[in-house]
Amino acid sequence: MYESTSRRRLLGGMAAVTIGTVLAGCTSGGSGTEEPPETTAGEVEANDETFDGWLSGVDGADRLTDATGRSEVRVRVGAEGNGGNFAFDPAVLRVSTGTTVVWEWTGLGSAHNVVDEAGAFQSGLSGTEGTTFSHTFETAGVTKYACTPHESIGMKGVVVVD
Questions:
Q1: What CA–CA distance (Å, rounded) separates 135 from 125?
Q2: Share of the chain above pLDDT 90, in %
Q3: What secondary structure letter does DSSP report for 81?
Q4: For 21, phi and psi rounded to 5 degrees?
Q5: N or C end: fewer C-beta atoms under 10 angstroms in the chain?
């Protein structure tokens, strides 16, 4: 009888602590308007440009993230899209000259890389979450890039530099 009562008391106490913690989180004096950390920055707008067919059929290519004026912007590698975790997020990014784009691996969708179609940059192949690769865009223009192993299924992106 003692063991059963103690167990009930323990479980009841744990439930009270859990409920109290949840309620404290809901009623903490915060404004409730905290924003999640940004992986990308800027306004998202509709995009109908395919960049000479480079983005035809690519998930996420219908949206452009305008991050002009930022010194650094992040792009997720292995984001959901193209039938799995085979996308860049955002797929279409507009930045100012001098902006550094940091690609950060999610660790999903197997090993990925980031390779400029014109050969200006190329990351190593990685499947490890948190891996990063960066490139600073010094001149205006359009840069098309892809993940070599998954290019044929649509893992492509574009950086438009103004």
A1: 16
A2: 73
A3: B
A4: -65, -45
A5: N
